[in-house]
Amino acid sequence: MGTISACIFDLDGVVVDTAKYHYIAWKSIANELGFDFTEEDNERLKGVSRMTSLDILLSIGGVELDQETKLKLADKKNKNYLEYILRMTPDEILPGVKEFMNELKSNGVKIALGSASKNAMTILNQLELTNYFDVVVDGTHVSNAKPDPEVFLKGAELLNVLPSECVVFEDAEAGIEAAINGKMKCVGIGSPDVLGKANIVVPGFVGFSISQLNF
Question: Where is the active site (predicted)?
Answer without folding.
Answer: 10 (proton donor/acceptor), 12 (proton donor/acceptor)
